[in-house]
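dumping this here before i forget
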Amino acid sequence: MIFANERRLLSIENELAAARQLQFSILPTAIPEVQNVRIAVAYRPMTALAGDFYEFISDDRKRVGFLVADVTGHGVPAALIASMIKVATQSVVACAHDPREVLRGLNRILFRQLHEQLVSVAYLWLDTENRKAVYSAAGHPPLLRWREGKLERIESNGLLLGVIPDPDYPVCELPIRCGDRFLLYTDGVIEPENSSGDSFGDRKLEQVVCKNQSCPPSELSDQLLSEIRLWQPASLAQQDDITLIVIDVV
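structure:
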């Protein structure tokens, strides 16, 4: 019986390893090269399989879309939905410049497939030629913009994907300047708790961003992950999937 159980466990572990490899294969293989933009990405699953997903929709060297999604739950079911988002994203490439239509298109494709699971999504379109950003979200943590020593929370939220068949999503258009820094992230960045039960939260996030304002995106990303690990008790494993995209306009 022990031998049989060990074989089953080994088989499960092998299947999870294969599934993890497949999941990483749906993520972008490279960061797009965009004129006057520097980009860094951190992706840290909580377990072997994650419900977080990110994608770049690259138009040319002057325009690019950033999509971050977070499926409710964890493990295999959430990872399967994340894979479906990858496929659905290919269907909205033609409207990549219009965040409202991107989110509506994703919801239309996924609505009948989610089976009571929900998805939060943030989508940012950056156009460096016309010096503007366009943003919309579906039940997602706000876009953050660091500008001239101040961190702004930009909320332009509609319903989570999967709630109703045809929701609408508000859109926020933002002029961009040299020196602007944008952060897109999932709630795994702000929800980890310390030994007292206090969340990392928006205030701690702002402190880290402020302290590292002169660092390049990759260093800020690394520092933020380090601060999150220090915030949590050493005896606890990571509490949620983490995805973070840092975008600098230079």
